[in-house]
């Protein structure tokens, strides 16, 4: 392996690129869960975002519309989930699972005519700086706008939850909807908003895959990333910064183990393949072992149905 | 006496009813490991199904069925719901297929790429993809500048190892300095991961990429990075017009139609089919003109020779990684050895995952 410094820069750059869908989807789901709603439909919302983004790109030939449209489609599909769980008070787990199955099926149907169309080049920013600065160039520059947004998102989310009044409202609703309701907060409305926001981020995560990362549409192209994002939220104990760390570790080890294979390290390949899952869990468990902090971040009414008695 | 007469009458009506029914309701089921829109492995099986349908036979299919417990449930469901012939189109369906076949002796089963035929109603079939890999190896050996070929492998089964070996042997023949780097991704279908694997191989110096997975992501990654690539299972040229040198194409349609008609007409019997370039079950996509006219001519000749049997992909002397002889000089590997291949030949880097 060429262990020179510029190669490591390129490597870190590609690790960052591979973590983006996980960061986006997990950050969105984190807000949803902090409001007390467990939406297992992440995979379904992502795949819907992927197909609508790609379809809009083909139809309108405009990447901006495609990106915004993918977020909008995530909002629409999560609205179904919101209506069922918040207005009709169905079980969160069952509804979320149904949403995933529905999303995968619907995307395959919508995507029939878009299979086999090559994608479009997505513009990258500061591409000249990427080449001219060794090591830091490929890390900091030459990425899509979505990547920069994804890396800012966990910090914004953290700020939102900890420092803003609205963030406090979301946390209150997730911890004790009854008390929040008694304080005059419209619990159902807050939860609706959080569900829709989660949908938008998952839609964007899907569009990142179909428009930027592997620019094409193929059925089931999210290939389980939604489930990994869900697991990240739990193992990161609902902390946005730890979600970012977890996503980077997962993406990093996935790519590193592929490189180790290509170099020819004599480590059993099955072990290497299991490594991303293993390491992500170990690291997140170790950095979140402070039980007081876990309690602080865990939405205590997660997945419980709330309705206001009239 | 009348009692008996009625008994016979009733059973005769039933028998008549059944035999009429079974002809009119003849149905063929397909189980796919990926989505029909993968543009690779499952896509080609689905094309085969379309051909059966076009021949006037009713079919159903179930897509994206994971290998394992789910597979048995799906196959059993198809057998129970009146399908007379069931194609199970992935290696991992081998045990589930045989298990269900035992419980449904009147249903016929066709399992792709496997070797277990535990009951008389199970046939197996596969294609000699390794003949295609030989052609890819020849091209790759001539086209590489870095003498490094990157290979994205799915699971360590004989089918995949055979492909790696056939490719490496052919590449060595035209370029003795060749090295094959392999990355195992342990999935048949994950576009993101396949793209990452391709990128890792390119970063490690490979300038020709090939894959034994099902999506088009590796060829697109190769196109972006400006290295050569090959299409797998179906013609993937339009996904990477500059990068793709040719594709190995699986053509299942003639076999599926033939077997479905045989099952309908009652002439179906157990068999083990292994067809290649000769029968057309393995075909090659158009050759990229970037190869140059001479190389295209050379490869076309080699393709003819493989089809006619004049050249065999595994002709001795062949050594394993430690230098032990596998096939003696002047001999060719027999089908038994090919079917159970579980060691790398000399020149392949790394170990086979156990």
CATH topology of the largest domain in chain B: Rossmann fold
- Helical stretch tally of chain B: 11
Query: Which structural class do the helices and strands of chain A define?
Result: mainly alpha
> What number of structural domains do the residues of chain B give?
2
Q: Low-confidence stretches of chain B at least 5 residues in length (pLDDT < 50)?
A: 15-22
The radius of gyration over CA of chain A amounts to: 20 Å
- Broad CATH class of the largest domain in chain B: Alpha Beta
Percent of residues in β-strands of chain A: under 5%
Q: Provide the residue-averaged pLDDT of chain A.
A: 89
Measured by DSSP, the beta-strand proportion of chain B falls in 15-25%
Please estimate the helix content of chain A: over 70%
Task: State the shape of chain A.
Answer: globular
Class per helix and strand makeup of chain B: alpha/beta
Q: Uncertain runs of chain A with pLDDT below 50, 5 residues or more?
A: none
Query: What does the radius of gyration of chain B come to?
Result: 23 Å
Could you give the count of β-strands of chain B?
A: 14
Walk me through this protein's architecture.
- The complex is a heterodimer of chains A (310) and B (354).
- By secondary structure, chain A is mainly α.
- Chain A has one domain: ABC transporter involved in vitamin B12 uptake, BtuC.
- Chain A contains 14 helices and no strands.
- In chain A, helix 1 packs antiparallel against helix 10, helix 2 (42-60) packs antiparallel against helix 3 and helix 3 (63-87) packs antiparallel against helix 10.
- The radius of gyration of chain A is 20 Å and the shape is globular.
- The mean pLDDT of chain A is 89.
- By secondary structure, chain B is an alpha/beta fold.
- Chain B has two domains: 12-127 and 252-275, Response regulator (Rossmann fold), CATH 3.40.50; 129-242 and 282-339, Rossmann fold, CATH 3.40.50.
- Chain B is built from eleven helices and 14 strands.
- Chain B has helices at residues 2-24, 41-54, 69-80, 94-103, 129-143, 158-174, 191-203, 217-225, 253-265, 293-308, 335-339; strands at 27-31, 58-62, 85-88, 108-112, 122-127, 148-153, 179-184, 208-211, 228-233, 244-250, 272-275, 282-284, 318-319, 325-327.
- In chain B, the strands form three sheets. Chain B has a six-stranded parallel sheet, with helices on both faces. Chain B has a six-stranded mixed sheet with strand order 7-6-8-9-10-12, sandwiched between helices.
- In chain B, helix 2 (41-54) packs across helix 9 (253-265).
- At the A-B interface, helix 1, helix 12 and helix 13 of A face strand 7, helix 7 and helix 8 of B.
